[in-house]
Amino acid sequence: MMQLQERDFEKELQFQASRSGGAGGQNVNKVATKVELKFDVQNSELLSDEEKELVLSKLASRINNEGYLQVVCQTERSQLRNKELCVERFYELLRQALTKQKKRKATKPSRSSVKRRLEGKKKQAEKKANRSYRGNF
């Protein structure tokens, strides 16, 4: 698989800035620092059909009705820094979606661990049994 950054997704990304809440004082009310990144998954020329399917299934909660993958950043006070954060998160999301999960191999507990567990249960049972009163009637 080719490195994601090498494919240069930058030309397929759409950015939109708006005013955001949070830190910034009076600056918040007049400067558009919130950045919204949109990426059209279906019409991307840089993803293969198989990769598109993976992204659409794994990132379904982040994809809107029009088929755009959305990433929103508004933590920083500058628009440029928020834009950089959006791009970083976008690449991280793609990387996670396109990474194949390893198959889980079923294993059995070792003999010694089974033995340890059973010995612990016996000790606990003895402890509880010793607490009861066993007088002669």
UniProtKB/TrEMBL annotation:
PROSITE patterns: RF_PROK_I. Residues 101-120 have a biased composition (Basic residues). This is Aminoacyl-tRNA hydrolase. Pfam families: RF-1. It comes from Pontibacter cellulosilyticus. NCBIfam families: PRK09256.1. Its EC number is 3.1.1.29. Residues 19-35 form the Prokaryotic-type class I peptide chain release factors domain. Keywords: Hydrolase. Belongs to the prokaryotic/mitochondrial release factor family. GO terms for biological process: rescue of stalled ribosome. InterPro entries: Pep_chain_release_fac_I, Pep_chain_release_fac_I_sf. One of its GO terms (molecular function) is peptidyl-tRNA hydrolase activity. Residues 101-137 are annotated as: Disordered.
